[in-house]
Amino acid sequence: MVSVLWPRVHGMAGTQTAIEPSPTDEPPRGRRPALSPSRAADFKQCPLLYRFRAVDRIPEAPSRAQLRGTLVHSVLEKLFALPQAERVPEKAKELLEPAWAELSEERPEWTELFPDEDQEEISSWLDSAAKLVDSYFGLEDPRRLDPEACEVHVETELGSGVLLRGYIDRLDVAPTGEIRVVDYKTGAAPREIGEAKAMFQMKFYAVVLWRLRGVVPRQLKLMYLTDGQALAYTPDEPELRRFERTLEAIWQAILRAGRTGDFRPSPSKLCGWCDHQSRCPSFGGTPPEYPGWPEPDAGDESPLDRAD
Ligand code: SF4
């Protein structure tokens, strides 16, 4: 049985993790296939989309909105690394430019979204990110919070052998031991389209934490920064038990499709957000030859997945 909780970055004042961090910031590579919330949601939405992303691993060009989400997540993570009294809007917005410089250095291909490094466009894009940061401060005061960790990599193996893996934006743990899972939503898509997917993702994390710590999280909190609203949900154990069975069924269906290569398209209104219409039979395209089930890992999430 595997049970892991790795905080990705830290040096956060007053922060502790209940399980010791790995000596490195990142989880080890070369891991066996796992189910992540993003890839499970892909398979549920459209098995062929799952194949393109997890099996063929066809790169997708991020949109500026996705990239802005990644940037805002990074800024909020850095904000919580500051002493509590310094977590104010001005300070958070000062973090935007250095965080963008850091991301562009790590992923130079992302800067291609701004042809000729047009400073005017970059600055208007940074302004739109600043609005999301302001919207965050309309929802809570981070000076009053002392999260256990931000951007936490979690991994656990269910009794059935299904490996679950994902990243949690923020984990708040009360002195009484009650756990709150927080996820920031920054996407441009209408909230109603993403809400079921977001709740699926939160229940996924709730199952992982319940299995890691033996405690059902007290609250799952979604913070929609685009429209400045929050949604809180309290799961219970019977519900998580049922959800665990759903995850096991999804993984078995993925493995069956993986053995045969039979990943069928499932068209819906979400096709409008799909990068793969040109190779999708539902849109007159032809998928590339099936490359076979990937090893070692079909479950990874990208930073862009985590910033939807
Ligand atoms: S276009 Fe629609 S049906 Fe085709 S792969 Fe994408 S999500 Fe699936």
TrEMBL record:
One of its GO terms (molecular function) is helicase activity. SUPFAM superfamilies: Restriction endonuclease-like (SSF52980). One of its GO terms (biological process) is DNA repair. Residues 13-38, 284-308 are annotated as: Disordered. Keywords: ATP-binding, DNA damage, DNA repair, Exonuclease, Helicase, Hydrolase, Nuclease, Nucleotide-binding. It comes from the Bacteria. Pfam families: PDDEXK_1. Residues 35-281 form the PD-(D/E)XK endonuclease-like domain. InterPro entries: PDDEXK-like_dom_sf, PDDEXK_AddAB-type, Restrct_endonuc-II-like. This is Putative RecB family exonuclease.
